[in-house]
Design goal:
Elements: E1 5-8, E2 11-12, E3 15-16, H1 18-34, E4 38-44, H2 47-55, E5 60-65, H3 73-88, E6 92-96, H4 99-112, E7 116-120, E8 122-126, E9 129-136, E10 141-146, E11 152-156, E12 172-174, E13 206-210, H5 220-229, E14 233-236, H6 238-242, E15 263-267, H7 273-279, E16 284-289, E17 302-305, H8 308-324
Parallel strand pairs: 1-4, 1-6, 4-5, 5-12, 6-11, 7-11, 13-14, 13-15, 15-16, 16-17
Antiparallel strand pairs: 2-3, 8-9, 9-10
Length: about 325
């Protein structure tokens, strides 16, 4: 499999994450364009059992079952992936820009001596190899970059592609491999799980997000109520997160998370470019704002001019009434 394009996956609660499925779709497309072999590498407890669902996205899946045994998962994944890279010599690794993904990418850079392109919002194949599209200067400019060598790592932002099944399922190969590398023996002594609601914001098909217009932490009550009625997640802008009105796990934008829900309701959000880059690929964008000239009006599919504290409760009540019929 020398010269191959690999997607490096992640698992959550025994299943491949949505970002992993996106990377598998991207790897399948790039390998077809490049006429090179492609694969998704899935490392973790229960990887072999989870692999068949991931193989539906097209590329073959290399599954490595392992137990982190109290160590940070990203460090162990990096060790196993580095050993596989040494053995099979792929050319390019696609890694998701999640918290663990960035750790994996950094560790692999050090262990393999490879270069990396980070925070790619899109990747396509060219004669010079993978070309990464990246947003810079607060989203005001888009650049394209290539790796200087014929191998390297591309760190891909969530929602860069839409996960979809391939024309034919890939095969699943279960691999047992000894790690050829050993990072520092760091141990996890405690875990603090952030409260982001019943639906993870990256996985949500519906997001109701609040900005400075909600007025304070108590203003998120109506945002959370509507999100609950829509069975969606709660999002936020950086300004309200910095103000302490809601936790960082809800932040969407250049310095937060990139999302691609089917419906994005922006309540009291002006639509600054830094927020736009994290949600502009949403299916339908509905903005609720008292200012008809807010920048978000330029790219929203529906702009509702009014007080969010009047509109959101009415929407929630209407949804409850419809469900009761």
């Amino acid at each position: 499999m020398a010269g191959a394009i690999w997607a490096i996956g992640e698992m959550l609660d025994g299943e491949p994450t949505r970002l992993t499925r996106e990377l598998a779709t991207l790897a399948a497309g790039l390998s077809a364009d490049a006429q090179r072999p492609g694969a998704t590498v899935l490392v973790g407890a229960g990887a072999a059992e989870a692999a068949p669902s991931l193989a539906d996205h097209g590329p073959d899946v290399i599954a490595v079952d392992m137990d982190p045994a109290g160590r940070p998962a990203a460090a162990v994944v990096a060790e196993y992936v580095a050993a596989l890279v040494r053995e099979r010599e792929p050319a390019f690794l696609l890694i998701g820009a999640s918290d663990d993904g960035r750790d994996v990418a950094g560790s692999l850079q050090a262990m393999l001596g490879w270069g990396a392109l980070v925070s790619a919002a899109g990747v396509r194949w060219t004669d010079a190899g993978p070309q990464a599209e990246m947003s810079v200067f607060g989203g005001r400019l888009t650049t394209t970059s290539h790796l200087a060598a014929d191998h390297g790592i591309v760190v891909v932002r969530p929602s860069a592609v839409v996960a979809q099944a391939g024309p034919r399922p890939g095969s699943v190969e279960r691999v047992e491999i000894a790690s050829a590398f050993r990072l520092a023996d760091v141990r996890v002594v405690d875990r603090i799980v952030g409260t982001t609601g019943p639906v993870a914001i990256e996985e949500a098909m519906v997001i109701v997000a609040g900005g400075r217009g909600v007025g304070g932490p108590e203003g998120f009550v109506v945002v959370e109520e509507l999100a609950s009625e829509l069975e969606g997640a709660v999002g936020a802008t950086r300004a309200v997160v910095d103000a302490g009105w809601i936790g960082y796990g809800h932040q969407i934008g250049q310095t937060g998370k990139s999302v691609r829900p089917q419906l994005y309701v922006a309540a009291g959000i002006s639509g600054a470019i830094q927020h736009k880059v994290g949600m502009q690929t949403s299916g339908t964008i509905v903005a609720i704002n008292r200012d008809p000239d807010a920048p978000i009006a330029e790219f929203a599919d529906l702009m509702v001019v009014g007080d969010l504290f009047e509109i959101l409760p009415r929407l929630s009540a209407a949804l409850r009434s419809r469900r009761a019929r």
